């Protein structure tokens, strides 16, 4: 019984979205479950997928909070 945890920052992937959408989460769950079936022969009904959204202020990158790191690197949020 595999359990897969996916951690993502709580921000949208498209303008106007403040977090990962329900449709995107469904695609992640389907894709990860199918991958475990294809690679390890784990049945879909035995696979659990947990998606955790983390506020960017609670996510560090390069020794800095994500927002600070992105500003220093000139990166824009997704």
What does this structure look like?
- This protein has 78 residues and is of the alpha+beta class.
- 35% of the residues lie in helices and 23% in strands.
- The chain is built from 2 helices and 4 strands, in the order E-H-E-E-E-H.
- The protein has a two-stranded parallel ribbon. It has a two-stranded antiparallel sheet with strand order 3-4.
- Strand 1, helix 1 and strand 2 form a beta-alpha-beta unit.
- The chain is elongated and about 45 Å long.
- The protein starts with a strand and ends in a 5-residue tail after the last helix.
- The mean pLDDT is 92.
- This is Tautomerase.
- Its EC number is 5.3.2.-.
- GO terms for molecular function: isomerase activity.
CATH top-level class: Alpha Beta
List how many beta strands DSSP finds: 4
Q: Could you say which structural class the secondary elements and strand pairing correspond to?
A: alpha+beta
By CATH, the topology is Macrophage Migration Inhibitory Factor
Largest sheet: 2 strands, parallel
* Range of strand content: 15-25%
What's the alpha carbon Rg, rounded to whole Å? 15 Å
N-to-C series of helices and strands: EHEEEH
The number of helices is 2
Low-confidence stretches: none
| Overall pLDDT metric | 92
Query: For the largest beta sheet, what order do the strands appear in spatially?
Result: 1-2
Helix content: 25-40%
How many structurally independent domains?
A: 1
First-last Cα distance = 33 Å
The CATH superfamily label reads: Macrophage Migration Inhibitory Factor
GO molecular function, one term: isomerase activity
Protein name: Tautomerase
Pfam family, one: Tautomerase
Family: Belongs to the 4-oxalocrotonate tautomerase family.
């Amino acid at each position: 019984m595999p359990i897969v945890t996916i951690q993502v920052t709580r921000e949208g992937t498209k303008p106007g979205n403040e977090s990962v959408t329900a449709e995107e989460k469904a695609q992640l769950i389907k894709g990860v479950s199918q991958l475990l079936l294809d690679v390890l022969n784990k049945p879909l009904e035995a696979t659990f997928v947990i998606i955790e959204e983390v506020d960017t202020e609670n996510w560090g990158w390069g020794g800095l909070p994500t927002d600070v790191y992105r500003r220093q690197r000139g990166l824009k949020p997704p």
